[in-house]
């Protein structure tokens, strides 16, 4: 075992997560020493505004020049929690080339440039760990790489965005419309001032790219993931979901089917009996199926100051242990396959279609005929009269390829008896 007394780290960013990491490193100082045999010392912190007062933080640690950290030979670990692609990418690559291991929570960066970062880490014999980039404080990357390494994983499906899960929970439990639930989420701090990345499924899409790459050992980037958000979900859709003993969740889907990877994010009806249906408010969960372990679910806080800091510090402790035994880079990139990512149009899903139609004989037959033309089979039908001469028709389908459903919907809109297609939601 290599003799070390102090491991010095540089912290990039002192926002919500960065502050949590700093506090946790101080709070766990003695525990870290007992767990690793060395002391962890935050040697410097990169911030935008060096003059800003930060309670409880030694101002002598602050710098606005990242090379004060990457160029410091005493620093052996860089902790990146600043977010965004640049300058984080440049700084991390420079740190690795200087022989420093890197721990990051940056899902944007890993989802797009993970391959390059892994390659650079391997070339320089350093660790590159990113547990906090997916599902905050919930352990999922390490379990997939280590605990479940004896499995062939076929499914990794998750609720990986707390903002949208909070919104959908409020819509389901309090009969709110989308905008009302979003306003409450914003007021309580669950949603950002600009919630676009959350409510349009982009945040979840980045996490699913990372999750799919890790689970299936083949590179999946953000652009490979089809994303659809929750902005079109209405209280009326929620009421129908209740009728069907289901809930609506924004699900990130990573699956291996027919020698291809399916990677997508969309709102889906999911049976109340499924474990993911019980995940409420801002909590996250990832449901994994392996050929040996069968079904397992990881559940907990998907974001926040200390949950995310918990995942970051877990990685830091792993790096410290590896340094002690001279085995940094021990578990690097596991993308040793080149499995193709399936075209989103070729993915098969069941669908819930809600439409406003003319209330007269023969309408259902006309619609069923149009669907059959596009290889869409009906599994259930619910019809309610909304007003004189008009009815609301809800159709559930069997599994059908996405492109067949898209063609069917386009032709349904052209039928004289179809006034409006109000909702199209997939079923898990």
Quick rundown:
With 428 residues, the chain is an alpha/beta fold. It is built from 14 helices and 17 strands. It starts with 5 loop residues before the first strand and ends with a strand.
Our count of helices gives 14
Distance between the termini: 50 Å
Classify the helix fraction into a percent range. 25-40%
> What kind of sheet is the major sheet?
11 strands, mixed
How many domains? The number is 3
CATH topology of the largest domain: Dihydrodipicolinate Reductase, domain 2
CATH-defined architecture of the largest domain? 2-Layer Sandwich
List its salient traits.
428 residues; alpha/beta; Rossmann fold; Alpha-Beta Plaits; eleven-stranded mixed β-sheet; elongated
Structural notes for this entry:
The protein has 428 residues and is of the alpha/beta class. The chain folds into 3 domains: 6-136 and 305-324, Rossmann fold (3-Layer(aba) Sandwich); 141-301, 2-Layer Sandwich (Dihydrodipicolinate Reductase, domain 2), CATH 3.30.360; 345-427, Alpha-Beta Plaits (2-Layer Sandwich), CATH 3.30.70.260. The chain is 35% helix and 28% strand. It is built from 14 helices and 17 strands. Strand 5 (101-104), helix 5 (107-123) and strand 6 form a beta-alpha-beta unit. Helix 4 packs parallel to helix 5 (107-123), helix 5 (107-123) runs parallel beside helix 10 and helix 13 (363-373) runs antiparallel to helix 14 (402-412). The longest helix has 20 residues, at 305-324. It is elongated, with a radius of gyration of 24 Å.
């Amino acid at each position: 075992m290599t003799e070390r007394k102090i491991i010095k780290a540089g912290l990039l960013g002192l926002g919500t997560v960065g502050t949590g990491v700093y506090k946790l490193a101080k709070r766990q100082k003695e525990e870290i020493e007992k767990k690793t045999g060395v002391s962890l010392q935050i040697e410097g912190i990169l911030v935008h505004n060096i003059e800003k007062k930060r309670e409880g933080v030694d101002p002598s640690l602050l710098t606005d020049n990242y090379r004060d950290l990457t160029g410091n030979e005493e620093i052996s670990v860089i902790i990146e929690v600043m977010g965004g692609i640049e300058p984080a990418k440049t700084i991390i690559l420079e740190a690795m080339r200087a022989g420093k291991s890197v721990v990051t929570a940056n899902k944007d960066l890993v989802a797009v440039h993970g391959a390059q970062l892994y390659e650079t880490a391997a070339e320089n014999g350093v660790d590159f760990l990113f547990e906090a980039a997916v599902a905050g404080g919930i352990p999922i990357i390490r379990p997939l790489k280590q605990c479940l390494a004896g499995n062939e994983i076929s499914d990794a499906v998750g609720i990986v965005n707390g903002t949208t899960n909070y919104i959908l929970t409020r819509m389901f439990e309090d009969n709110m419309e989308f905008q009302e639930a979003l306003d409450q989420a914003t007021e309580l701090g669950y949603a950002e001032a600009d919630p676009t990345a959350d409510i349009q499924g982009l945040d979840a899409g980045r996490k699913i790219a990372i999750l799919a790459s890790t689970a299936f050992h083949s590179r999946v980037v953000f652009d490979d993931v089809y994303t659809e958000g929750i902005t079109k979900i209405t209280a009326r859709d929620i009421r129908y979901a209740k009728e069907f003993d289901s809930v609506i969740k924004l699900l990130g889907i990573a699956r291996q089917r027919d020698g291809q990877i399916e990677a997508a994010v969309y709102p889906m009806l999911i049976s109340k009996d499924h474990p993911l249906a019980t995940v409420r408010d801002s909590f996250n969960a990832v449901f994994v199926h392996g050929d040996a372990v069968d079904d397992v679910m990881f559940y907990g806080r998907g974001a926040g100051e200390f949950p995310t800091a918990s995942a970051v510090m877990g990685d830091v402790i792993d790096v410290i242990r590896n340094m002690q035994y001279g085995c940094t880079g021990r578990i690097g990139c596991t993308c040793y396959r080149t499995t193709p990512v399936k075209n989103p149009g070729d993915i098969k899903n069941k669908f819930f279609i809600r439409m406003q139609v003319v209330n007269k004989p023969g309408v259902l037959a006309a619609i069923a005929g149009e669907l059959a033309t596009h290889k869409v089979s009906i599994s259930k039908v619910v019809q309610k009269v909304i007003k004189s001469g008009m009815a609301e028709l809800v159709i559930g389908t069997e599994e059908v390829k996405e492109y067949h459903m898209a063609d069917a919907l386009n032709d349904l809109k052209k039928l004289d008896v179809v006034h409006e297609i109000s909702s199209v939601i997939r079923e898990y």
